[in-house]
Amino acid sequence: MEVPLSWQLAKLAVSIGMVLGLGAIAVRVSPRMAGLLAGYPLGTAIALFFIGLELSPGFAATSAVHTLAGFTATLALGGGYLLAGRRPGLPGVVAGTAAGLAAFLAVSLVLTRVEFDRLTGTLTTLAAIALFTWLYRRVPESIARPTGRFSWAALVVRALLAAVIIFVITGLAHVLPAAWAGVMAAFPVTMYPFLVILHLTHGPDPVATVIKHYPMGLGSLLSYALCVSFAYPTLGLALGTLAGFAVATLWLVAWTRLQAWLGNRRAEHRGRGRPSRDT
After folding, report:
1. From the centroid of its chain, how far is CA 32?
2. How many CB atoms lie within 10 A of CB 59?
3. In tens digits, what is the pLDDT along the chain, a chain of 279 residues?
4. 215: closest CA among 248, 253, 188, 244?
5. Contact 46, 11 (CB under 8 A)
6. I need a surface site. Which of 168, 185, 223, 238 has the fewest CB within 10 A?
7. Is the dihedral of CA 222, 226, 231, 237 positive or negative?
C-alpha cells in the first residue's frame, strides 16, 4: 500500500511536535509536568496509530499484543547501553548505542518466535521488569547538573531523531509480520534520543540513573498497549487511541500517588527512628 504524502507529513509533524512540545512545557510550565508527560506512551502511541492508519486497525491491534512483550526488548536495549556506554562523549554514545541495538534485536528475534497473547505478553514484561530492577539495584544514583540555559539545538536533534525512528518503525511494518511490527513499536522512541543528548552533555553517570529507573516506569506503556489491543478493532483508531491515553493516565496518576505515599511513610519512619534531643 502506497502511503499518501499527507499521512507522511502528519507523521513527521506529530513526531517532531511531540518532543518539541515536551521541551516547551519543561521551559514554560515546569519540568515536573514535562516529566509526567514523558511517562506517557507517546512514541509507542504514534507508531501503533500510524501502523493502523497505513495498514489496518486489526493489524495494529495484533501488533499491540506483541508490543506488550516487546518492552522486554526495550529493557534489554537499556541494559546493553548501560554496560557498553561507560565512556564520556561520542565514543560512549556510539558504544552504548551499538550494544543497546544489538541487545534489542537479539531479544526481539526471540520474542517474535513466540505466539504471545495479552496475558503472556504482559507477564513476560513484568518478569523482565522484576529482573532488570534487581540487576540495577547497585547502580549508583547521579543527578545531571543544570548547565544554566536551555538548549533548543539539543531538543531539535532529539525531535529529528525521534521522527527518523518513527518512520523506520512504521515503514518496516509494511514488510514485516505483525509480531515484528509490534516489537518494533516498543522501541523507546522518546527515551533513546534523550539518553544520547544526556550522555553528550552530562556524561554516562546520569544516563545510568535514567536506565536504572526506567523499568518501573513501564506500567503506563503496558496499560496503553493492552488497552488499544482491545479498543482498535471495536472503537477505531481515534477513539481507541483516546481510550489508551485515558488508561495510561489513570495508571500514571495512581503510580505517582503511590510513590508519594511510600515516600511519606519512609520519611515518617525515619523521623520516628531519630532520638530526641531532650534525651
Report:
1. 17
2. 19
3. 556 667 777 777 887 877 677 656 655 655 455 545 656 788 899 999 999 998 999 999 999 999 999 999 999 999 999 999 999 999 999 999 999 999 999 999 999 999 999 999 999 999 999 999 999 988 887 765 555 455 667 777 777 888 888 888 988 888 889 999 999 999 988 888 888 888 888 889 888 888 988 888 788 899 999 999 999 999 999 999 999 999 998 988 888 788 778 777 777 777 766 555 554
4. 188
5. yes
6. 238
7. positive
CA atoms within 13 A on the CB side of 239: 6
Instruction: Write out the three cell numbers for 84.
Output: 557498553
Q: Which three cell numbers stand for residue 272?
A: 520516628
- Coil, strand or helix at 275: coil
**Full-model pTM:** 0.84
CB atoms within 10 A of CB 275: 6
Q: What amino acid occupies position 68?
A: L
